[in-house]
Amino acid sequence: MKSPRELSIDIKLIDMVDAFGLSDKIMKALKILLADEELQASQEFANTVSIIRLGYNDHGPVHMRTVTMNAVIMMELLKKAGIKTSLETDGCGDFEDSLLAVIMASILHDIGMGMGRQNHEQYSTVIAQPIIDKLLSQVYEDNWHKKVMIKAVTLEGIAGHMGSTSISSLEAGIVQVADGCDMTKGRARIPITLGSINRMGQIHQYSANSIEEVRITAGNEKPIRIEVVMSSEVGLFQVEEVLMHKIANSTAKQHIELYALVGGEPEKRYL
């Protein structure tokens, strides 16, 4: 059973993607993903391992949906700014193909946490493949060119989301940054309540607990503006050690401006 929070994000995602005014294929694909019981079970078990066994932040269905929402917002901002995706630039796909790859990578990227934290992005690519194949077969049927291309970009986005694996597509770079933007205190609420904090997860949880909001809007100088609003300076760990690392290694870096706001102090500009 999905939680009220998951259902709320599902509705927002459907509305956001519908607003693009693309073909019925993208909406069909999104609804298939959101209704996939194998995906839901994989997300829930990943969260159980992350929070209860390992003492980390949320890496479950709410997190993966939130990352997907972040990524869709950024894709919309790039589209409005006239920035072409890698598939468009390569001449082998259109914006809709790129958006689908970004959505799939975002909603599948952490399911490998069910096998543990170390190398979980690689485990995620293995667990995700049957889900990707099943969806693409329903949406693109016998169009092997589209299926192969979208699957490859999706797996690149999953494998590269930690910022430790080299990526080359703008689509994968968006997934990387979208993941880093989910750092608000809600991600640390459950492990802190359960008292399941371990040494490795401790700084992430307490730092995330000071992040009040992450805003993704159109920038003044670049297409994407990210603002991280925090109640105390401990939240700067999330910005400087997590988000900045991912942006620095992202193919989307040139399109992003980043600011941190601590209490009533003047905003701190990073990019």
Q: Largest sheet, if any? A: 4 strands, mixed
Helix content: 55-70%
Alpha carbon gyration radius: 18 Å
Identify the quaternary structure here.
Answer: single chain
Mean of residue pLDDT values: 91
Q: Please identify the structural class as seen in this structure.
A: alpha+beta
Helical segment tally? 12
Distance between the terminal alpha carbons, to the nearest Å? 41 Å
What order do the SSEs take from the amino end to the carboxyl end, as H and E?
Answer: HHHHHHHHHHHEEHEE
Walk across the major sheet and give the strand order: 1-2-3-4
Note poorly predicted spans.
Answer: none
Percent of sequence in beta strands: 5-15%
Choose one word for the global shape.
globular
Number of strands: 4
Short description:
This protein is of the alpha+beta class. It has helices spanning 4-18, 24-35, 37-53, 61-80, 86-90, 95-108, 120-140, 144-159, 170-180, 186-194, 199-208, 236-248, and strands spanning 211-218, 224-230, 256-262, 268-269.
